[in-house]
Structure formats: C-alpha cells, structure tokens
Write a structure and sequence with these properties.
Length: 227
C-alpha cells in the first residue's frame, strides 16, 4: 500500500520590503510635514524678543513676535502644507517638482527663523514709533526667547518631509478618478453623448387584471391603447 501524501502548509508570502518602506515613509512624511507647518505657524505668533525704550525720564517695555521680525517662516509653512497635499494630486514629473517645493519651503523656514533669533530691528522700529524719533533704538535691556529656535526646528521637520517625498514619492499612491459618476463619458470616448443601456420593453398589460391597469396608469401609460 502506497503512503498517502500529507499536504504541506503553504509558506507565508513575504511582504514586499519596498511596499512596507513606502507606507512607512508616507506616514512619516505626513506627520512631519503637518506637525512642522502647524508648529511654525504657532511659534511665529509668539514673542521672539523683548526690550525697553527710553521715553522722557522712564522706559517703556516693548516686545516683538515672530511675524514682526520676519513673516517668511509662516508664509513658507503655508506653502509647504499646500505642497504636501499637492504631492498626492500629481504624478511623475509634477510630483518631483512639488516635492522639491516642499523641501525648499522647509529649508527656507528654518533658515529665516534661525537668522531672526538675534534680530533686533523689529524692536528698533517699535522704539522709534513709541518715542517719535526715527533714529531711536531699543535700550540695553534686550532679551530673546526660544521661539525662533522652535520655529527653526519645525522648519527642519518640513524639510525632512520634503526629502522623504523626493526619495519615496514616486511609490506613493495618487488621487484617481475611480469615483467618477457612472454614465459620464471619459475623454477620448468618441461621441459626447451619455451612453445608456438598452431600452427595456414595456410590460404587457392584461386588461383582465385590475392590478396591471393600475400599474400602467402609475407609469403614465394608457392601458386602453392597443399595442
């Protein structure tokens, strides 16, 4: 008697390393880009520097927020956020350009925030306005907060999202037209008329059955008309 072969369990299909890396990079890029843009917008509205201006025999405290110092980081954060969303709306060469824009937005936001960390021109302008003398500057009491550096770090997050998009963006999914309404002709379909299915024949009305007569009337048909 020959032995009955025992079926062997199927080996598990290994998950593609590229597919797993693509999903991880997509999630990380979305997280970094969205978080970075949000933090830049929040940190740009915080106080970056404080000082005093001498007025008469006293002094007036003054402060300048990030948008007083430079509005570039906040503007670039908005551009970067828009580019992050646009990455999924374009393909091939367009996706590369949008990814590059995302990268440059993060780099620009980080650089301008870092340069504005020690800037005192915004306080000098406020001092001149307060004193009424265009040559007036801020006094010796001048402090800078940590918010410019927070903004710079957030800009780096946007930069990293752009680098991930440049590296893995071609593997990410894109918006498709699979949710288009049925019956609407696609481009290149020839005639512009909407394609319809074959017309269904009208039901046969039996004059001896009252229910058929009522149904015909509901359909707007004349049940007494001979076909």
């Amino acid at each position: 008697m020959s032995a009955v072969p025992v079926p062997q369990p199927r080996a598990a299909v290994p998950v593609s390393t590229d597919a797993a890396s693509s999903r991880r990079s997509l999630a990380v890029a979305l997280l970094l880009g969205a978080a970075g843009a949000a933090v830049v917008l929040i940190a740009s509205g915080q106080v970056w520097s404080r000082g005093t201006a001498s007025v008469g025999g006293g002094s007036v405290p003054l402060s300048a927020d990030g948008r007083d110092v430079t509005g570039v980081p906040a503007a670039l954060a908005v551009v970067g956020l828009a580019a992050l969303v646009a990455v999924f709306a374009v393909r091939s060469g367009g996706r590369l350009l949008v990814s590059l824009l995302l990268t440059l937005s993060g780099a620009g936001a980080a650089a301008t925030a870092f340069l504005g960390a020690s800037d005192s021109s915004a306080l000098d302008e406020k001092a001149a306005t307060t004193v009424g003398d265009s040559s007036a500057t801020i006094g010796d009491v001048l402090t800078h907060t940590a918010w410019p550096y927070v903004t710079a770090v957030a800009g780096v997050l946007i930069l990293l999202a752009g680098l991930l998009s440049l590296r893995y963006g071609k593997q990410w999914p894109a918006m498709s037209g699979r949710y288009e309404r049925e019956g609407v002709p696609r481009a290149g379909g020839g005639s512009g008329a909407v394609r319809r299915g074959p017309a269904r024949p009208a039901p046969v009305v039996d004059p001896d059955r009252p229910e058929d007569l009522w149904k015909a009337l509901d359909r707007g048909e004349d049940p007494t008309r001979e076909t």
